[in-house]
């Protein structure tokens, strides 16, 4: 009895403890997995932001190239094109609203050195604003800005010889020889005292219609000039990253080498070091070619970006899991206690039922006065013995006893 009670007590302690341990292990595993999943989600979202910024930047450049190709079509459409025709084309393209990164679009004619004076005379006859090719000096060839819009923003560029400045000349020659749109290195505008080192010139070569352009030599012979889009690298990048989630730092460099001189734009003090002081865990770098040049866009996450995904550990989830584990263990303890009490009651009732049946059996087969078997019991046993004798063909004996004067016992003690 005592050993059974001890086993039940141990069972009520052991099973809830095991359930609590297993539940707690499951809660901790889920909590840890949940933290890892949140970190993965933060990285996925950050990488999406980086890819979106790069894609937006390339789309904005492609949009400018489409405008340049439209300008090439205009150049091919008329041999006697004037600055008024160019202005009409630019304004019809609604460039200020559709191309917000662009600061101007120009047409630069290729002029052999021997044709300089004739070209200047022709330009002055059609455009009173044109004075002469500048800077002055004899050169083998000139890349002269003949039309530019908006003229009012850069009148000094009209007549400017792009071949007189190394970076502009190199980009124009690459475009001419390759037949592809080509980007210059960051340059300054051709205006004394004005610094614009983060500006780019995008050159699209235009050749004489029908002329062979299968080789660099043929392209040099067939060149008419270049449609040139000028845009601010800083504005270009700011527009591309404008849709990024708050809490992301970036810097944008011309070239794959990261140095202060290559910096075009940043939303942190990028000249102070290689990494922002408040950068968090995530970072990405994109290298891509535009117009023959390599651009580098680097991004870092900050705590502001990561907090919605990571933040503090999810203590509410952990506490709720522990409380549920305790509740489950306590519930099992109560169930085991109820079961133990129910089994004890069942055992007691079974025992009482057996005892009652035994008492009834004794009462039904025993004489109350003498305590010996009564007449009913005698006949039940006699029938069984008689059946067994008949079945096994064995003899049966019966002994009868007669007690003299037993009536006196009955009269005195009762029947």
Structure description:
Helices cover 51% and strands 18% of the residues. It is of the alpha+beta class and 415 residues long. Strands 2-1-5-4-3 form a five-stranded antiparallel beta sheet, sandwiched between helices. The protein has a four-stranded antiparallel beta sheet with strand order 7-6-9-8. Helix 1 packs antiparallel against helix 7 and helix 1 runs antiparallel to helix 9. It is rod-shaped, with a radius of gyration of 52 Å.
Report the β-strand fraction as a percent range.
Answer: 15-25%
Q: What global shape is seen?
A: rod-shaped
| Mean pLDDT across all amino acids | 84
Largest sheet: 5 strands, antiparallel
Characterize the quaternary organization of these chains: single chain
| Structural class computed from helices and strand pairing | alpha+beta
Termini, distance in Å?
44 Å
Query: What is the tally of beta strands?
Result: 9
* Low-pLDDT stretches: 190-197
From the alpha carbons, calculate the radius of gyration and give it in angstroms.
52 Å
Could you give the order of the helices and strands? HHHEHEHEEHEHEEEEHHHH
Binned, the helix content reads 40-55%
What is the fold's blueprint, element by element?
Elements (H helix, E strand, L loop, with lengths): L1 H76 L5 H10 L2 H4 L3 E11 L3 H11 L14 E9 L16 H13 L3 E2 L15 E9 L8 H7 E10 H9 L6 E7 L8 E4 L12 E12 L2 E10 H4 L8 H51 L9 H18 L13 H8 L2
Antiparallel strand pairs: 1-2, 1-5, 3-4, 4-5, 6-7, 6-9, 8-9
Keyword list:
415 residues; alpha+beta; five-stranded antiparallel β-sheet; four-stranded antiparallel β-sheet
